[in-house]
């Protein structure tokens, strides 16, 4: 009985510690660290050359800057307790899609066709994973990419 109790405490303690560590890594990274981490992952997943990695770094920096700007805008709106008008929301969605298309065009120029298709698959898998996480949190079915 004593061993079972100690085992349960150990299991709960390590699980809690592992969850805290994961949150630390994601939340406390600087934009530069995020860029370097993303480039390392892409280099490994796509088998990039040094030249490709350098060219992709420019794209990743731009994407992270855009993401940070959108995040700051959302937080400012939440602080003001302002909701976005439907016209603003549609304009924002169009701008986001335009940025996404520009990124894809730049990626096509840098990556080989095989690398580009693999990159597309990786992005799709990440979107699905994100949709699953949101679905689990909110309890409703979300579909991306339609």
What can you see in these coordinates?
This protein has 146 residues and is mainly α. The protein has a domain of 80 residues. It is built from five helices and no strands. Helix 2 crosses helix 3 and helix 3 runs antiparallel to helix 4. It is globular and about 45 Å long.
Poorly predicted runs are 17-24
Instruction: Give the biggest beta sheet.
Output: none
Number of strands: 0
Intertermini distance: 54 Å
How much of the sequence lies in strands comes to under 5%
Number of helices: 5
Mean pLDDT: 80
Helix proportion range: over 70%
Please give a handful of descriptors for the protein shown.
mainly alpha; 146 residues
Write the layout of secondary structure elements.
Elements: H1 2-27, H2 31-46, H3 50-80, H4 86-110, H5 113-138
Helix pairs in contact: 2-3, 3-4
Structure at a glance:
It is built from 5 helices and no strands. By secondary structure, the chain is an all-alpha fold. The radius of gyration is 20 Å and the shape is globular.
